[in-house]
Design a protein that fits this description.
This protein is α/β, with parallel strands linked by helices. It folds into 2 domains: 202 residues, DHBP synthase, CATH 3.90.870.10; 88 residues, Threonylcarbamoyl-AMP synthase, C-terminal domain (Rossmann fold). The chain has 11 helices and 15 strands. It starts with a strand and ends with a helix. It binds threonylcarbamoyladenylate (TXA) and magnesium ion (MG). Magnesium ion binds next to loops.
Amino acid sequence: MSIISKDISKAVELLNKEELVAIPTETVYGLAGNIFSKKAIASIFKTKQRPKFNPLIVHIPNVEYLDKIVEHIPEKAKALANAFWPGPITLVLKKKASIPDLITAGKDTVAVRIPNHPVSLKLLRQLEFPLAAPSANPFNRISPTSAQHVEDYFKDTIKMVLDGGVCKKGIESTIIGFKNEEPIIYRLGSTSIEDIERIVGKIEIKNRKSKVENPDAPGMLERHYAPKTKTILTNDLSNSIEEFKNQRIGVLLYNNILNDEAIDFKIVLSEDNNLEEAASKLYDALHQLDKQNLDIIIAEQLPDYGLGKSINDRLERATKN
Ligand code: TXA
Ligand code: MG
């Protein structure tokens, strides 16, 4: 029997009983539990097989709630929250003592955001606690952008996926931390750097480093978001196709300019060069490619600006050995 359901009151009931529910957001589906329940938080880590050092994002229903979670809000954090919430920006701020160490992996900061999805906002408003929700995929696998993706991963381990349709943005939130009141990007994501800089000015990027190199952003492991099929990233498609022509090849293209007999399966992210559309389709494309029994997935590098930067970041992580 399917675990996918639109019943918000059932989700409320399960969450109140310290169970997990996968929830829709505008970025990707999250695997949600009560931040104050040891049982729920432990089962988030267990279900995802996520390393304990990797902290969780707290999802809140409105800006006023932020004061209950964090000690201090830098001016530029306020400006970002006002500009982008509800929406795909996560702020990492000094946490209140009441926020459990389990959530923050022992750090004195907590990551928090307001998701921009009517179903999850409605759910959050009906709960007496915020929701911790990492992306609803097993550790190191592709993030889910539909209820079906989550069911495929977790039908035997969780009781419910709250159906909110296909995620509109399709890649995770942009994560921003602060040092001496100044913002730093820890993870590229669904809000572009250009849009962020319009609010706070030039911003430092500390994306993509191992835990040891970059203890401020412990989840930024190099290999991540990965299909099971061997995947490579290229800016010279014809050459890469030539190199693997005797194997079963799948290609992931930005736009549809390529036809080559050696290609067995092809997905185009945006026929009319739209980076927002490409971002929204990226993970579903990787899920589909991964199901085709290919020997290799060849992904084309996207233009390196706007959401193209975030998409390239995910593709680079998906293709690390
Ligand atoms: O769009 C999203 O952000 C989705 C949806 C469900 O909200 N969530 C998501 O969560 O992508 P997750 O757990 O897959 O990624 C959260 C990232 C991890 O890399 C984690 O290391 C980082 O946020 N993070 C969480 N708390 C942090 C903290 N206190 N300091 C630095 N990084 C933190
Ligand atoms: Mg994740």
